Structures are given as C-alpha cells and as structure tokens.
Amino acid sequence: MSSETRIPTGIAGLDRVIEGGVRDNSTLLVVGSSGTGKSTFAMQYLNYGLEHGENGLYISMEEPPEQIMREAKMLGFNLDQYYEKELFFFHSKGKDFVKLVDEQLPALVEANKNYAVKTRVIIDPLTPLIWAIQDKQEQREIITKLFYTLKQLGPVLITTEEHASPGETIGEDVLIPIYMSDGAVHLTYRPIGGAFNRALEIVKMRATRHGEEVYPYIFVRGVGVVVRTTPLVSAEDVRKYDDVFDKAIRTAADLGASERMLERLVYVKENWSYPFSPKETLQIFFESQGLNDAITREELEKRREESSTKAAALEVSELTGSMQQDEDIVPEEEPSQEDEPLIDIDNLSELEEMIQ
Questions:
Q1: Which residues lie within the region annotated Disordered (predicted)?
Q2: Is residue 1 part of a domain?
C-alpha cells in the first residue's frame, strides 16, 4: 500500500478504489461522451476543495463563469460564495489558449509560490484545444507544458469530450491527453433505461493501486456523482493471506532463493489487495524465477548437505583455535532449526496442497 499522502477527490465512492484520493501535483483526466457528467465531476471536485480550505482555479474553454456557477447551484454546489475570493476563473477559447499557457499561467504560478494554500485546478473541457490544434506534435507540446505548469499549483482535474468510432474503446482524439496525464477515468453512457446506465472505469493511475472493475454511478442533487464501489480490501481481509505468504517465503528460502527475491515476496505480501488467494500468482512467480520442478528433491538434499558440511567445518575450526583437544574428536552438532526442512516438495505444484 502506498504511504504517500493522498488528496480526496470529493467524488463519492471513487476514493475507495484509488487509495484514498489523488497524489498532490498530479493530473486526473476525465474522459467521456456527451451526457456522462464530466462537468459535474469537475464541479464536485472543485467544491470539495473549496469547502476544505483550498483555493480553486477554473479554466473554462466554453462557458463563462456566470453560467458555470449557475449550473453548479442547480446541482447543490454554491460556488458564488467563493467567487473572486478563493475561486478564480480563466475563460479562453481555441488559439487564445496558447497565450494563456505561454504567459498567463506561468505568471500565476510564480505569483503563488509564496502562498501555502493549495489550489485545486479545473480545465473544463480540454476539447476545444484539441480541435484547434490539429498537428499532433504541437498538440502534445502545448498539453505537456499546460500540465507541467498547472501541477505546480496543486492537483489538476481535466475533462475532455471523446468521439469514439464504432468498435473503439476510447476515441483516438483523446489518446495524447490520456498518455500525458497521471491518471485517467473513462465515463460511458448507455441510454438503455434503468437507474444505472452510466459507468466509470479507471484507465490509469500512476503510482496507485486502483480498482479494475467497471463501476456504475448516479447523480444525486446536493451530493453530485456517487460511484458504486466497495473498498479494494476490507479491514478484515487486510492480513487474510499472511499465512500463505509466510509459507511461500519459507519455501523460497529453502529452495535457495536470493535475498532480493525474498524481499520481493515480502513486498508482495504487504501490498496484496485482491480478494482471492495469492497461491496461483506465487506459483507462477516461482516458475518465472526458476524455482519449479526442475529443482528435484535430490538437488535440494544435496544443497542441504553442502550447507551442513560447511557449517560443521566452520564450527570445528573455531573450536580448535580456542581449545586443546584431540584432532580426531569432533564436537557433536547441536540440532539447527535452520537445517530442518520447512516444506519438502518434489515439485512446485505441491506448494498449493501444503499451504491449503
């Protein structure tokens, strides 16, 4: 599990499956077609920050501030009380956005260097910029500079419209923003009736253990987006498979695994977040490291004998240096717990049987 401090998104249910929130100074891209609620995500994310003592910067490339605050109020978010105090707007369109990125935003970052208050940034939507700059290289360069500049203020949420062709999972027009962002969630809308016809999927989330399911969500006035999720690991399941890992680690050590491999197994144990047993994963990992049925019982016994012989020789050498005894007399070895086989197997497939 990550020990890094996380910043809650304020999106009900989402933080459960992204280790409690987003990383500071990171970018989160919200991708979806019309009707998926991208702007609602943005307003809810912004409102949470304002309510918790942060400042807000809303960069709009379509709607003016008055319309944004009016729509927010309809959802139950009163942004008016923060306007021009903790909340500020930039309203820009198309090619004018290049000037904003090159001049205005860097000046804003410089002016905020001496302020301790975190600023939560919204770009809603990025779509006009993508449409205005057709050259992919130029588009990539300006998006890179935009993301780099804004991340210096605080966590950034960006929305963008997608227009996927039939058969496409994600539209080609949003591939560059997805690639450049630190995290991306994909919203889909299927107008087939019923309460849960919208769903969220986490496409990527750098340096974060995240959920991999498709999560339905709804809109609740006064709350905003509510994503139906359950925590990745419940409190009672956190250490559920410790015994399985401990036996696997002892077996790996008995088979002559390197210290680095043992450290990796311990790390996997500490970060295992799946609700199912790690037995199959461990077996596959053992095989990938050469700890499989190629190591026979005969080879294992040979290793143990060699280890015991070395230990005995070392003990005799130490004793003869400090005690005058007959050279033919060799002190009896105390039984060593380390020499006792922890798990005896003919092949690795027996590991599952032994640890059930």
A1: 302-356
A2: no
